Amino acid sequence: MSRPNVKASRTTRVLVIGASGFHGQHIVKTLSEKWDVVQASRRPRGPAWQTVDLADPATFSCFGQYDAVVNAGHSSCVSSRAAVEYCLREGVLFMEATHDSRHIQELLALRTSQKDPQGTAILGMGVFPGLTNLMAREALTQAPAADHLEILLRVGVVSGAGRSMCRHMMQHLQSRPFYFEESQLCHGDPMQRVPLTLSNGDVPPRHEGGDSILVGFPESLMLHESAATRNIVTALSLKPEWMNGILRSAGWLVRRAPLVGRLVEAGMILGRSVLLRWLPASLEITVVARSKACLSPVARVDVRCGDGARCAAAAIAGGLELLMERRPLPRGVFTPDELLSLHDLLPRIAHSSPGGRGCDLQWTTNGGANTQAASETRT
């Protein structure tokens, strides 16, 4: 049976798994502005915490006590598949915040394997993936004939991050990136440069993406499923851009010397998750949709975010609020762009920051033809 409509209020209860982590702490802080939030971990930090171990389905019985369950745990270490399957059977709303491509691929398989689901699972909610999926869907809406998607993420490297993000960066240094070409999943070389067509005479060039690094972000897998886009490329560029060369050199060393890899990972965790933990990571995301017959972009969406971790938490809070307002929800496993829209989510992000502070989020479509700033503060 579908669960009743639940408005965002203090009576709404949300369980956050992995609440002790870097990402989880931001999510708990943001969600607590609207709802009663219970923190969960396999090693609870206090009597008010809930014990949840993703590797032990016996700890999932508490899920039914909550209006929604958000997973911010380290999916690269422990899969949430069993938890998602439980929620689908028991009629629970589950939101997965992972950015791990292999884990997303595993969960996407549940779209067809689950028979008669009773619950709803949203995969990859946050900024990337999550907001990037909605940006891609917006670009495809502006260009219905487009069959190519290019997604470029620019991130400030001198900033804080969680351990899981550092481990994901290490995975990208060592693994072959993937992309879709004519609906076929293809693989490139590690740290491969990728030229992106991000601007033309009608779209003011801000960054051509010529020194970008091909990376297998989960958006490719998700958008190939949800939007049936035939060609998808995802890429990364560090800020400042000269850091891309250092990243490629580090990747070359890591792939040839495992000991160096362990030292690089330890240094990255020490630097970003300890020493720089509270330094915000600025993000710039560009999504371009174009057709194969026309190499120039036909639609483009840009988003700038002053604090990636805070915006990711605000995206989860805003998305959850929208979903609760729209209950009863369709049942099954969905990607963010199948249930949410960019135009609906951005205002929620702007007003979902703790203490009434905005997220310093700005976005444009088609290089400024439509421009909006979502950095207002609440009054």
How does this structure look, described?
- This protein is of the alpha/beta class and 379 residues long.
- The chain folds into two domains: 13-125 and 309-354, Rossmann fold; 128-308, Dihydrodipicolinate Reductase, domain 2 (2-Layer Sandwich), CATH 3.30.360.10.
- It has twelve helices and 16 strands.
- A seven-stranded parallel β-sheet has the order 3-2-1-4-5-6-14. A seven-stranded mixed β-sheet has the order 10-11-7-12-13-15-16, with helices on one face.
- Strand 8 and strand 9 form a beta hairpin.
- Helix 6 (163-174) crosses helix 8 (243-256) and helix 6 (163-174) packs antiparallel against helix 9.
What are the salient characteristics of this protein?
single chain; 379 residues; alpha/beta; Rossmann fold; Dihydrodipicolinate Reductase, domain 2; 2 domains; seven-stranded parallel beta sheet; seven-stranded mixed beta sheet; 12 helices; 35% helix; disordered N terminus; disordered C terminus
Topology summary:
Blueprint: E1 13-17, H1 22-31, E2 36-41, E3 50-51, E4 68-71, H2 81-90, E5 93-96, H3 101-108, H4 110-113, E6 120-122, H5 127-142, E7 148-156, H6 163-174, E8 178-181, E9 184-187, E10 213-214, H7 219-226, E11 231-239, H8 243-256, H9 258-275, E12 283-290, E13 299-305, H10 308-325, E14 332-334, H11 336-339, H12 342-350, E15 361-365, E16 370-373
Parallel strand pairs: 1-2, 1-4, 2-3, 4-5, 5-6, 6-14, 7-11
Antiparallel strand pairs: 7-12, 8-9, 10-11, 12-13, 13-15, 15-16
Helix pairs in contact: 1-10, 3-7, 5-10, 6-8, 6-9, 8-9, 10-12
